[in-house]
Design goal:
The structure holds two protein chains of two kinds.
Chain A (H helix, E strand, L loop, with lengths): L3 E3 L2 E5 L4 E7 L6 E7 L5 E8 L4 E4 L2 E6 L4 E6 L8 E8 L6 E3 L3 E6 L1
Parallel strand pairs in A: 2-11
Antiparallel strand pairs in A: 1-3, 3-8, 4-5, 4-9, 6-7, 7-8, 9-10, 9-11
Chain B lengths: L3 E4 L2 E4 L5 E7 L5 E7 L5 E7 L6 E2 L10 E5 L2 E6 L8 E10 L2 E4 L3 E5 L1
The chains are: A mainly beta, B mainly beta.
């Protein structure tokens, strides 16, 4: 079955760049997503990338996809304290429906 | 994006009782999903709520424990039946709006004593 893995924790200083990494196993995934979850809140869709792309940029966010290595990353430029949250990567099944989530990476931004 | 609301936002329940969680979307959607997030864990899909037919459950989840209704294209309910402390989780509904996006509701935080 599908498996999505992330590192548990990342700590950066305010103003630095953050890079959160994710590996997945299902090569038939159509889309890959990044969600943000702040304490006590639901999931906010940050960005997503279609599987035939290798990069997508959206303001401070850059998503890189290495399909050969099944590796996805999220780079946050000029990280702010408000970026402190848990970040989940997720992939869809080949019908584009069910999401399989990674375990989440807790990002801590130090002032 | 999609505006999704859930009720209740949180509840504390006694074991053996049942709780029904409601999910309302601001426009019609074909696909609605229910997820569970256990404390400190990631999200796991419980079932896909289909309008006009029975829900499709993932491995490890059964209809008797988590009955789901989907009476129309903007609304769904998930019931957590005969609760035990192990059911304490955040329950989230999500919708597939376009071919490429899934949005989540704010979640219902359930504590079972």
């Amino acid at each position: 079955g599908e498996d999505v893995e992330q590192s548990l924790f990342l700590s950066v200083r305010e103003g630095d760049s953050s890079v959160i990494n994710c590996t997945y196993t299902d090569s038939s995934s159509t889309y890959l997503y990044w969600y943000k979850q702040e304490p006590g809140a639901g999931l906010q869709l940050l960005t997503y990338i279609f599987s035939n792309m290798d990069m997508k940029q959206d303001q401070r966010l850059t998503v890189l996809l290495n399909k050969k290595d099944k590796h996805l990353s999220l780079r946050i430029a000029d990280t702010q304290t408000g970026d402190s949250a848990i970040y989940f990567c997720a992939e869809t099944d080949n019908a584009g429906n069910m999401l399989t989530f990674g375990g989440g990476t807790r990002l801590m931004v130090k002032p | 994006s999609a505006v999704i609301s859930q009720k209740p936002s949180r509840d504390i329940c006694q074991r053996g009782t049942s709780l029904t969680i409601q999910c309302q979307v601001d426009s019609q959607v074909t696909m609605m999903f229910w997820y569970r997030q256990q404390p400190g864990q990631s999200l796991t899909l419980i079932a896909t709520a289909n309008q006009g037919s029975e829900a499709t459950y993932e491995s490890g989840f059964v209809i008797d424990k988590f009955p789901i209704s989907r009476p129309n294209l903007t609304f769904s309910t998930l019931t957590v039946s005969n609760m035990s402390p192990e059911d304490s989780s955040i329950y989230l509904c999500s919708v597939r709006r376009d071919a490429d996006t899934q949005y989540f509701g704010p979640g219902t935080r359930l504590t079972v004593l």
